[in-house]
Amino acid sequence: MLAVFRDGAARLDLVPVDFVTEAAMRLLRDPRAAGRTYHLTAGRGHTVPVRRLIETAIGIAGDGAPGNLRFLGAGAPAPRRWRRMESFFAYLDCGKEFDDAGIRGHLGRDLLARRNPGVFLRPVFEFCAATGWGARLPWKDAVRAREGVR
Fold first, then answer.
1. What is the 3-state secondary structure (H, E, C) of 29-88?
2. Exposed e or buried b for every residue in 90-106, given b needs 16+ CB within 10 A?
């Protein structure tokens, strides 16, 4: 059973690292960008609900899926083991769509299209499933040792 904070409707602004790297390089070479600040974000209309993120990952992993999810409704107390993460809950409770107007004039359509989660999420999750990435995370052993679990 995977418990998810609130109802899974919280939206995340996710971009792949190759988008950030390429965008930074293009902005460095663009004299119009000198001395300005840019938000390298997914931008308006491209945020992803937590629920979609999790369901996509589970669907690719073939774990039997949404039946294994339990969404905690608003006002539900967080499980005790989540207390270390409470400082992040405010971020997950608010709407977020970052202003990406500044980068649209400097980056080509080809690059802007790559920041869309509809383009990159599935291949990332497929890579993780194919390579077993994340199956054995080093901090799991550290937590188990600290809690005396074998």
1. HCHHHCCCCCCCCCCCCCCEEHHHHHHHHHHHHCCCHHHHEEECCCCCCCCHHHHHHHHH
2. eebeeeeeeebeebeeb
Range of the structural domain that residue 17 is part of? 2-147
The domain tally of the chain equals 1
Burial of residue 46 (CB within 10 Å: 0-12, 13-18, 19+) is: buried
> At residue 21, does pLDDT exceed 90?
yes
5 DSSP 8-state letter: S
pLDDT at residue 29, as a whole number:
92
CA-CA distance, 97 to 5, in Å (whole number)? 20
Instruction: Give the integer Cα–Cα distance in Å for 139 and 141.
Output: 5
Query: pLDDT tens-digit profile of 63-94?
Result: 554 555 566 665 666 666 666 666 666 666 66
Lowest mean per-residue pLDDT among 25-29, 61-65, 93-97: 61-65
Question: Token pair 């919280």 is at which residue?
Answer: 10
Question: Which CATH number is 13's domain given?
Answer: 3.90.25
Estimate the crossing angle of helix 117-131 against helix 50-61, to 10 degrees: 40
